[in-house]
Amino acid sequence: MEKLGSGDPQRIGTYRLLGRLGSGGMGQVFLARSDRGRTVALKLVRPELAELQHFRDRFRAEVQAARQVGGSWTAPVLDAGVDAAVPWVATGYVAGPSLHRIVSGRPGAPLADSGAYGPLPERSVRILGAGLAGALQDIHRAGLIHRDLKPSNVLMTIDGPRVIDFGIARALDTVADGGLTRTGAMIGSPGFMSPEQVRGERVTTACDVFCLGAVLAYASTGRLPFGSAETGAHALMYRIAQEEPDLTGVPGA
C-alpha cells in the first residue's frame, strides 16, 4: 500500500481513505474504512469517465448486478456511489497477495522474505482452479462476464483464492473504440485475453473460461501461455488469435 498523494481525497462517502492500493483503466483503488470501522477496497472512477453519461448508465447497471454475486470465491460488492459526482464502488477488502505477486514477486515489497514463491505445485494449482471455477460460476450466474480475469485480479488467502474486479469492465466497453477506451486503457490484459477479445468480437462466458486456462497455465509455469508483450502488444494479440498456447510444464498437458 502507498501513502495518499497530495491530490487524493481524504474521504469518499462515509469512508476515510487510508492509502493507495493501485490503479487501472477504470480508476484509482484505495484502502478505506467506514465510520463503523469496516475496511474496504474503494475504487474511484476516473473523472473523464464520470463525464460520460453512457458510461455512468452502464456502471450503475453493472454495480447493481455485481451486488447479486454470492459464493465464497469473490470479494463482495458492499457499497457504491453510482450517482456521485465521481462514481465509486466499495468491495470487501481481501488481505492477501495477488497470484501475480506470489508467482513473479512483482510488484511490491518482498513476500515471505524471498520476494516470490514461483510457480505453484500441481496440487495447489488444482485447488486454485477449483476456486476460480467456482468464482466464475457465481459471476456468470448473476448475469455478468468478468472480462479481465488475470493473476493480479486473483487474491490468495489461507481459505483459497478470491476474484476481484468482476462485473465492472463492461462499463468501459461503452467507451471503447477498437479495443481501447477513450482514456487509452485496453479492456482486458493482453497476456490473458481470449481470441474473441483480441479480435473485437462478442465476449461471452466462454471467454472467461479461456482466460481461466491462461491463468492456471501461468500459475503452473510462471510463463504467459502465449509469450510476453516484449515484442509488442499487437504481436502478442496475433499469437492469441492465431496460434496454440505453449503449455510446456503444465501438468497433464
Topology:
Elements (H helix, E strand, L loop, with lengths): L10 E2 L2 E9 L3 E8 L4 E7 L1 H4 L2 H14 L10 E5 L6 E5 L6 H6 L17 H20 L12 E4 L2 E4 L5 H5 L2 E2 L2 E2 L13 H5 L5 H17 L11 H10 L11
Antiparallel strand pairs: 1-2, 2-3, 3-4, 4-6, 5-6, 7-8, 9-10
Helix pairs in contact: 4-7
Description of the structure:
This protein is an alpha+beta fold. The protein has one domain: Transferase(Phosphotransferase), domain 1, CATH 1.10.510. Helix content is 32%, strand content 19%. The chain contains 8 helices and 10 strands. The protein has helices spanning 47-50, 53-66, 99-104, 122-141, 169-173, 195-199, 205-221, 233-242; strands at residues 11-12, 15-23, 27-34, 39-45, 77-81, 88-92, 154-157, 160-163, 176-177, 180-181. The chain has a 6-stranded antiparallel sheet. Strands 7-8 form a two-stranded antiparallel ribbon. Strands 9-10 form a two-stranded antiparallel ribbon. β9 (176-177) and β10 (180-181) form a beta hairpin. The longest helix has 20 residues, at 122-141. The radius of gyration is 18 Å and the shape is globular. The model is unreliable at 109-115 and 177-186 (pLDDT under 50).
Strand content: 15-25%
Please give the order of strands in the largest beta sheet: 1-2-3-4-6-5
CATH-defined topology: Transferase(Phosphotransferase), domain 1
The succession of helices and strands, N to C, reads EEEEHHEEHHEEHEEHHH
* CATH architectural type: Orthogonal Bundle
Largest sheet: 6 strands, antiparallel
What is the helical fraction, as a range of percent? 25-40%
| Radius of gyration, taken over Cα atoms and rounded to an integer in Å | 18 Å
Which residues form runs of ≥5 with pLDDT under 50?
109-115, 177-186
Structural category:
alpha+beta
The number of domains = 1
